[in-house]
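Worked example 3 (structure in, sequence out).
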């Protein structure tokens, strides 16, 4: 039974990789728009050119858009993964080691989701395939 399941779902793996990439890209894009424009999450926005928040929002919007559409996916995901690693160690790690305690879970998840895309590529539904 397990082998049959693996065979069935294996035929859709490149399509589901694309769905994963699109969702991660859109969520990363929204992470940036909330910093720069206060949308969709209402809250304080970063002042223009304010270090590091405004620049982080710009990186998140550009990387999120590129990853979502599948253009330069590996390169953009590499930059995004590094960006989230830096964000974790600069903003979250100093207050506590564990992400559950320091509010760094989104940064860790984005970092490793984007790192996965560096190694897997964009999947079958992408503007730029391989």
């Amino acid at each position: 039974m397990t082998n049959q399941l693996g065979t069935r779902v294996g035929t859709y793996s490149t399509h589901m990789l694309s769905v994963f990439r699109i969702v991660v890209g859109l969520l990363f894009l929204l992470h940036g728009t909330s910093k720069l424009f206060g949308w969709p999450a209402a809250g304080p926005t970063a002042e223009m050119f304010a270090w590091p928040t405004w620049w982080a929002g710009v990186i998140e919007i550009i990387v999120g858009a590129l990853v979502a559409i599948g253009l330069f996916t590996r390169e953009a995901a590499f930059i995004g993964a590094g960006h989230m690693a830096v964000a974790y160690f600069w903003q979250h790690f100093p207050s506590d080691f564990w992400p559950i305690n320091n509010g760094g879970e989104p940064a860790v998840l984005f970092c490793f989701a984007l790192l996965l895309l560096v190694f897997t590529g964009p999947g079958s539904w992408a503007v730029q395939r391989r």
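Notes: The first helix runs from residue 2 to 10. The chain has a mean pLDDT of 93.
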